[in-house]
Amino acid sequence: MTPMVDVAFLLLTFFMLTAVFSQPLAMEINLPPANEDREVGRSKLAFLRLDAEGQAWGSFADAVPERLADAETGAFLRDVAQRDLGLVVQTAPGSPYGRFIDALDAVDQAGLTRYQLAALSAEDASRLR
Q1: Can you give the pLDDT of all 129 residues of the chain as single tens digits?
Q2: N or C: which end of the chain has fewer CB within 10 A?
Q3: Domain span at residue 53?
Q4: Residue 61 is part of a domain; what is its CATH number?
Q5: Structural domain count, the chain
Q6: Residue in 82, 75, 90, 76 with CA at minimum distance from that of residue 127
Q7: Which is nearest to 47 in space by CA: 38, 59, 39, 64?
Q8: Which of 118, 56, 55 has the alpha carbon at shortest distance from 86?
């Protein structure tokens, strides 16, 4: 009986020491220095807006935002990357958190490296009709 207990503890120790724990998945965010101010014209920006229901809206510069289906969001973001524009992701208060994370995943998949996160202003929210 004693040798079997020894083997059991040896196996338990072996599996505990060789187990690979999953690393938490996190998106790396590189923040610019606090003292650096850079002005970017609206003509060089695209906007991805999430309303309170989690619906995505996309627009270039000052164009009227268009409602984007899930499949269209990826195409819109690839177009933004192709045009080499900066992206502003705006979310309304109360927007579903899961939709926001889905939008950030789509931004990452599109290969966009220059984007800004902002709250959706009341003026911008009124344009989403």
Answers
A1: 678 888 898 999 998 888 887 777 776 777 777 777 777 777 788 999 999 888 999 999 888 889 998 888 989 999 999 988 889 999 998 889 998 999 999 999 998 888 888 898 888 888 877
A2: N
A3: 42-129
A4: 3.30.420.270
A5: 1
A6: 90
A7: 59
A8: 118
